[in-house]
Amino acid sequence: MDLIIVESPHKAKTIEKFLKGKYKVEASKGHVRDLPAKRMGINFSKNFEPYYEITEEKKADIKRLAEKAAKAEKVYLATDPDREGEAISWHLAEVLKLDPSRMSRIVFNEITEKAVKAALENPRSIDMNLVDAQQARRVLDRLVGYSISPSASLQLSDNLSAGRVQSVALEMVVDREREIAAFVPKEYWNVTALLEKEGAAPFKAALNDFKGKKFKPENKEQADAVLAAVKDRDFTVKNLKKSVTKSHAPAPFTTSTLQQDGSSKLNLTAPQVMQIAQHLYEGIETENGSLALITYMRTDSVRIAKEAQDAALKLIRETYGEQYAPAKPNFYKSKANAQDAHEAIRPVDVNVRPEQVEKLLDKQHYRLYKLIYERFVASQMAEAQYNSVSLDTVCADYGFKTTGKTLLFKGYLAVYDDSKKEEEDEAAGGLLPDLTVGEALKQKSVKAEQKFTKPPTRYTEATLIKAMEEKGIGRPSTYATIMNKLTEKKRAYVKKEGKFLVPNEISYRLIDFLVKFFPDIMNISFTATMEDSLDDIGEGGKDWHKLIADFYKDFSVELEKSELTDVKCEKCGAPMRLKSGRFGNYYACSNYPNCENIRPVNEKVVIPTDIICEKCGGMMVEREGKYGKFLACGNYPKCRNSRPLDEKKSTVKCKKCGEYMVEREGQYGKYLLCPACKATESLAEKVGTCPECGAPTQKMTSKGGRVFYGCTRYPDCRFMSWEIPTGKKCPKCGKYLVSVKGETVCSARDCDYKEESKEKEAE
Prior knowledge:
This protein is extended. Mean pLDDT is 87; it is low at 421-429 and 759-763. It is built from 19 helices and 36 strands. Helix 8 packs across helix 12 and helix 9 crosses helix 12. It has 763 residues and is an alpha+beta fold.
């Protein structure tokens, strides 16, 4: 029996049902090998060849697949129809040591019986151009990430990461935030007139020009001048244009546009959109077996198969009427650098309407399928048509303009909620009366309203993905991963305020560091050009080894500059470089090979001082610990004396031994410490009276930052209270009384005793 290997267990289950026992279908469960997780994994001396390894958790899967492959007459590799899927097939062939003569690669854009059987009838060999394109991208991203991240982490903060595309996306968010911060609002005034033709409803017109030149008042004086000039005067129709305008249906979804609409219309993150789309692609369980609902969801093509287009047109004619089908089928042009290997995202079967499968899907899966379905059907429908009117009026050399737009024919709007366009249409105006050039219009009112220009809007996930796509940064398959890296809780370079992306403080420092030392990496044009070069590899137009070598030549120079630190070599005085090695980060002298000094980053530096230890008479040294720099006895471990580097002596003498005490700050605030006998005395504010022993209580702060009041006789008396204790007992229940917002009340929650104020008692 022949064997088919796919990535997903669910996908394997679905396909096996189609083939009715004629084939054995197994899942690799994703990648079977990858670059090492904890080291570079690239052989620089062998043309940047990657070193792949099999993780422990994948060994059982590989053993299972190897056993099945050995028994099979022929092995079909049916991983996803993109570069990543092609690479997985190649890795499978390498790891399983498959004989090329009994191995074939098959691809299908949708998981249907017809598509799978057609793929089995048309097998091919593994496309090494696509594999090389994926390898080049993986190696390039590893070089950038593993080289820059350690340097950024040490110089800025712990646990930072930088990425070839991720960092450029973050730069866009940071730059936008800086634009907003630097924005200076500019004043302007809107002047609108309410005009009327006798017997018709009044309409608005907005100031547009002065003596034929564009004009908008910049201050109140200019606005008042307009009002004075047109006061109580009629307006004259100068120009009138009537036309029928059309709005073309939007193209079917690509990965990018699906993520954008999923964010703006459904309030889903890009990773959520892709995860749900994956489930819809692999299929859902029904009474009649597994049913795949959409085509492959990683694509930047807007092409549609003729069979699918014909089915959509048939449905449109039967459901909505002949007039809703275009005279000629709609065709959409993909962007110049689009990968056209497979179709746009569409329903597998347009006759499977969302309402038919609603009960089989959860809310989010249903909403996304409905969105994909409606967008596809709408893309094949006729244009929406509007009656449009543009009217120019004039009064005292000031020109006023108004537009009106009314829907004549819904077209694709009957299916797809194009809310953005509808909002724009409503804002443009409504019906206008029948008018002729030269006709006089009466002025009902004219008013001026002060306005200020607004700063650029912050990015949302949807608008950032759109901007990245427009600039050629990243590819559809990477957008979700990038969004996830920017917003993940572990590092959180970006936080969300509603839908808007706001960079955290560390993001500014990280971007400034990267722009300073890695200008090419952070250059949008350079990044876009590199993406095009990676695409060229997939088409067989470039050697990936040469691309990486050319890139690394300049990158290594920038990397060396970024590695320089303020740390000086203790042997020759030259600046030390930050390096990453097998055993972690380390400093290496930049004067190499003249100086070969190296030392670990975390090596404890000991600096001698002239301060004498008060316990043993030895010399104190300066050390650095978890909480910063401190003084410690040089005779450690024989003498364990230590104290803060910036310790302040007080004028207070110890009550036990008479030595002068020093100021310290601990968990619960500032206190005095005797360096001789270690006696302590709190410096906390004394507020209230302990109801248990009568001693004063002091104001303190807990680990969580909450204020509380504890007895000054601690640890002999362990009384504490969240409110100020008065030292009195409650006459009603016997608990202690506390002061809360100037009132004396019982500390017991179930007691309602409240002490009357002296003013009230006097009354």
